[in-house]
């Protein structure tokens, strides 16, 4: 659950790094990248991997710059980081939920009839966020050829 503190009373780092609009833009990029490859939409559970993967330096740096069809980049993540992925996912889950809710309220994201996330509208590009947004888009594309079950099994996660 998110802290009950008002946004202004949250720690400086949380206000900046986990700003809901920033996190929503990362999730939107990933969903939009996924939907470029697979029109029917992204599994809701995969959205919970976006923030931990993009906001963690070691994981983000191991992501390829373009889509490939394998999860071979996962092997490049340090064992220490890999072991902590479930904790990162758990810790980021409330912020992911908050961001998805904000995205749906702002009509940037929607859940289709199949229960899959899809993007709508477009976001304005901001130069300082390019690296994060590009990696989020690639992450969405990396997810497309592989079922969510295989992704979670490879990462040793249970959704």
Question: How would you portray this structure in words?
Answer:
- The chain is mainly alpha-helical and 159 residues long.
- It has one domain.
- Helix content is 55%, strand content 6%.
- The chain has a three-stranded antiparallel beta sheet.
- A hairpin with a 4-residue loop joins strand 2 and strand 3.
- Helix 3 crosses helix 5.
- The protein starts with 11 loop residues before the first helix and ends in a 5-residue tail after the last helix.
Report the count of strand segments: 3
Count of distinct structural domains: 1
- State the shape: globular
CA-based gyration radius: 15 Å
The percent range for helix content is 40-55%
Give the uncertain stretches in residue-range form.
none
Quote the average pLDDT: 86
Largest sheet: 3 strands, antiparallel
Structural class: mainly alpha
Order of strands across the widest beta sheet?
A: 1-3-2
| Strand percent estimate | 5-15%
Number of helices: 7
**Helices and strands, in N-to-C order?**
HHEHHHEEHH
Terminal CA distance reads 17 Å
């Amino acid at each position: 659950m998110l802290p009950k503190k008002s946004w202004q009373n949250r720690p400086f780092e949380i206000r900046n790094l986990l700003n809901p609009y920033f996190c929503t833009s990362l999730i939107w990029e990933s969903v939009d990248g996924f939907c470029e490859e697979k029109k029917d939409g992204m599994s809701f559970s995969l959205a919970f991997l976006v923030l931990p993967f993009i906001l963690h330096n070691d994981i983000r740096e191991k992501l390829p710059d373009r889509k490939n069809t394998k999860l071979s980049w996962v092997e490049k993540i340090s064992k220490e980081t890999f072991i902590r992925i479930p904790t990162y996912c758990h810790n980021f889950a409330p912020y992911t939920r908050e961001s998805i809710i904000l995205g749906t309220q702002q009509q940037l994201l929607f859940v289709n009839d199949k229960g899959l996330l899809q993007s709508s509208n477009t976001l304005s590009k901001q130069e300082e966020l390019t690296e994060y947004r590009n990696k989020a888009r690639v992450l969405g594309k990396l997810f497309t050829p592989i079922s969510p079950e295989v992704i979670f099994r490879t990462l040793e996660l249970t959704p």
